[in-house]
Amino acid sequence: MAAGGKRKNMRENRRDFLSKLIKWAGALVTAALIYPIFRFLGFTIKPKPRYVKVAAPLPASGFHAERDFILFVDQGRPRAISRTCTHLGCRVNFLEDKQIIECPCHQSRFTSAGKLISGPAKKDLPSFAVEIQADETGTTTGYVVTI
User: Is the domain of 130 the same as that of 115?
Assistant: First the structure.
């Protein structure tokens, strides 16, 4: 009688093991099939770049503010800094008297190069590529900012 009970126990253990093995294999196959679908659903197409032309020369202040960026030209080298604060997305302003960029919402402060000075923001302001346009004589006629 003890041998028959042992066989029954062995069958149940084998059955449990095979059942769990089949369930795990099914879960792995399901995950392998669903993963590409989730990758496809999360795929986004990057928007085409926008080109904004700014005429030269800039004002005597040395900067030009647009809706999306502030263009600075120091010693002939232009740089465009985003006007979107990295904290909550407010539009930042350049304070000419203090030579800093400040967010009006929570007073995050940045250098004119976009580096974080203080405030609740944790990241520097992003910068955009700037191309200098010149005429045949080499005189700067404008700047093209790629957003």
Answer: yes
* Averaged pLDDT of the chain: 91
Quote the Cα angle for 126-106-71, to 5°: 35
**pLDDT grade, residue 20 (50/70/90)?**
very high
Task: Compute the radius of gyration of the chain from its Cα atoms.
Answer: 31
Q: Are residues 12 and 74 in the same domain?
A: no
**Torsion sign, CA atoms 10, 12, 13, 17:** positive
Buried b (16+ CB within 10 A) or exposed e, 116-127: beebebeebbee
Write the CATH number for 58: 2.102.10.10
Q: Residue 3: its pLDDT value, please?
A: 59
Amino acid sitting at position 108:
S
> What 3-state class would DSSP assign to 130?
strand
Q: Is pLDDT above 90 for 58?
A: no
Using an 8 Å Cβ cutoff, are 71 and 54 in contact? yes
**Residue 84 DSSP class:** B
Rounded to 5°, angle at Cα 79 from 67 and 57 = 80
Please state the pTM of the whole predicted model: 0.70
Quick check: 29 and 35 in contact, CB under 8 A? no
